[in-house]
Amino acid sequence: MYNTTTKLRKMATSVVSTVILTAAITSPAVARVDFGKPGDPVHLVVGYLPRYTESWSGVVNNGKQFWKKYFPAGSTIDFQLMGHGLFIIDAMVAGKQHLGYMGDMPAIEGTFRYLKPRGGVDIRIIAVPGTSQQMCNNFLVRKDAPDFQNSKEAVQWMNGKVFATLLSTCSDRFARLAFQASGVKPKEYLNQSFDLMVGSFRSGTIDAATIWEPIASKLVKAGLAKRVATGKDFEVMDSAIMVMLNDLIEQRPDIHKAWLQSELDAQLFLADPTHEAEVIDMVKQQIGDTLEVDKEVLREALYGGQPGEVKLQFDFIVNDKVRKFLDEATAFLSKLPKKVVAAPKIRAEGVMDEVGRQILKERGLTSPVGVIKGSQK
Fold first, then answer.
1. Containing H/E element for 229?
2. Would you state the pLDDT for residue 377?
């Protein structure tokens, strides 16, 4: 049932740096993929991130096999576990994956891959698995850091300290925005994967970091770091985004709609609090054997927090809130020294959620379709 045929690639800092610096300009061009005619069985390869809590609707769709209700008989889906949204975008450009779940920054970057110097492959944003202020936006400090009176004081403490994050991620964007708002300049701003971050906190070679869930909860539970602030403290949103090859959209409108039907089922399943135990079991089975994380940590990542406070919202479509967020995030990326995006705004056709809106109307639903609120046990 859990077809995760690609193991997570370990991300050394040098490798990640190479991806970030070159992915936007050196991805190979690829011929169009033939997905067959509407109604024919289809084989799709889906890149997804079980190690990114905000995108766990992909885990649910894999585990519950919702897609089978809508796809032509004989179709197959290969869910491939990936370590970073940029890896998924690169795989889509190479024709090895056809749609993917990822964070907002790789998804935005992916919409610019239609440009020939960036790969010449048309990738569109089609849905929103979730939005939050606490999934990707987590400030952690070393375990022996002072006890701060509030989050703003904690971030001020990072001035002149050694800081780490994974570049070109939502965690990177959050850190830069928070530092800019606070007038903070770290002594060093390091590019580290979460594997390296664990070692750095353990050895005391970094003072602070930003990272996404469930890695943030794992580091806290292990006693290696303390959580001192989230995007909620700075009014900074984060988001998971679903993207699809435009070749697939054009050739197979039936599959485009079928996948979104199954994605909606997955989001509704996640939003139902009675499914908590089953969701955590699915994540545990799919998260991969190279990341040791127990069910308590997984539960904290998705369901922990202040009781009654919205932890994760299932927007499904690019509603007004998400559109504003994408505009602001793209403008931010366009100002970075490394040209992650080619323009300060996503082209109009880069976002295609019309089919998702049609599905909501047909099923009598509106965005958001559900939320998960924090709880404590």
1. strand 225-230
2. 54
126 and 273 together in one domain: yes
Of 203, 233, 263, the last residue of a domain is 233
pLDDT digits (tens, 9 = 90+) for 279-296: 999 999 999 877 789 999
**Counted domains in the chain:** 2
> Which pTM does this prediction carry?
0.89
Confidence grade of residue 344 (pLDDT, cut at 50, 70, 90): very high
CA distance 374 to 276: 12
Phi, psi of 55 (to 5 degrees): -110, 20
99 and 33 within one domain: yes
* For residue 208, pLDDT beyond 50: yes
Pairing of β 99-103 and β 43-48: parallel
Q: Per the domain annotation, does 4 fall within a domain?
A: no
Say yes or no: 103 and 199 in one domain. no
Domain encompassing residue 186: 138-233
Output the CA angle 118-175-179, nearest 5 degrees. Answer: 120
Last residue of a domain, one of 233, 264, 280: 233
Instruction: Say which DSSP state 46 is in.
Output: E
Q: Beta strand 208-210 with 162-165: parallel, antiparallel or unpaired? A: parallel
The DSSP output letter for 351 is: B
Q: What is the pLDDT of residues 191-201, one digit of tens each?
A: 999 889 999 99
Looking up residue 147, the CATH number of its domain turns out to be: 3.40.190.10
Residue 225 CB partners (closer than 8 Å, separation 6+): 140, 141, 142, 143, 201, 209, 219
- Rounded to an integer, what distance in angstroms lies between the CA atom of residue 253 and that of residue 249? 5
Please check the confidence at residue 251 and state whether its pLDDT lies above 90. Answer: yes
How many CA atoms does the CB half-sphere of 280 hold within 13 Å? 17
Nearest to 332 by CA among 177, 138, 185: 177
What residue ranges in 272-333 does DSSP mark as E strands? 310-314
Is the previous residue joined to 344 through a cis bond, with omega within 30 degrees of 0? no
Q: pLDDT tens for residues 219-235?
A: 999 999 999 999 999 99
- The mean pLDDT of 73-84, rounded to a whole number, is 96
Given the DSSP bridges, would you call strands 238-245 and 99-103 parallel, antiparallel or unpaired?
A: antiparallel
Q: Which of 157, 167, 150, 147 is nearest to 105 (CA)?
A: 167
